[in-house]
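I'd like us to work through together how a protein chain folds, taking it slowly. To get us started, please write out a protein record for me. Label the sequence line and the structure token line clearly, so we can match residues to local backbone shapes. Once you have written the record down, we can walk along the chain together.
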Amino acid sequence: MENGLLKIFFDNIEELRRAAIRLAIPIIVTFCIFLMFDLRLYTFYGYTFWFLYPDPYRNIGAQMLSAIILHVVGTKFKLLALRPTDGVVADFYACMFLSVIFTSPNIFYQISRFVGPALKANERELFRIITIPALILFIVGSSIGIIYVAPLMFDILYNFDVGIGVQPTMGISSFVSFFLIYVLSFGASFETPVIMVGLTYMGIVKSETWKAGWRYAVVGALIFGVIFSPGVIGFTMMLLAIPIIVLYFAGIYISVRIEKKRVNAQPIPGKVDS
């Protein structure tokens, strides 16, 4: 598989260039829309609907940031623009994040279209099977991180700051970069069972190996939590580690089912179909 992928890259540079263009154009177009327009309600003959209105300062990225700040931070933390460019950087981060999310189906499609010729039939079938679950798990993980975990985490951090008698403040650029990395890492952690099932489906890793390595998986999840969680307190580490551990055991269960299904599908030696 690896040699086939390398051959595709080196023997089809022109196709790679076209694939990169097909991937980049939708991202750039949506980025410009999110950066140059905002969403406004308009009532026409009793019907209310959203429409795009040119406004580079109160654009869609800025509207998303305002909603996130209100939901996650509220009035507890005082967000500051420490440099004149902090607002611009935060807005660009938000617009790029939105453009990647909105064009993610096209990103997956272009990747599968490019690497497809280098894959075997069972590998193409695996890619087709796991694409939708991978997208769903990433969206679910990111949504849980935004809606439930992030507000709880900032509440705890706020209480610690107040407990030692300091005024909680944060730079807007630091908040946005941390928040987006946190959401992406939380969504990526939900891909654990997809990776496990894919490796088992390909026959690279047996389900017994996943079972035997559960202790290492727990330690790895804790290390992942330490790296990507804010601060050094154990609670924020566990917020990331616990979902990975739960999904790891879910991956074990699905991997066992896949192997059993494969064994049952194999013909019994010596048996002749009538």
Notes: The chain has eleven helices and four strands. The first helix runs from residue 2 to 11. The chain has a mean pLDDT of 81. The longest strand covers residues 37-44.
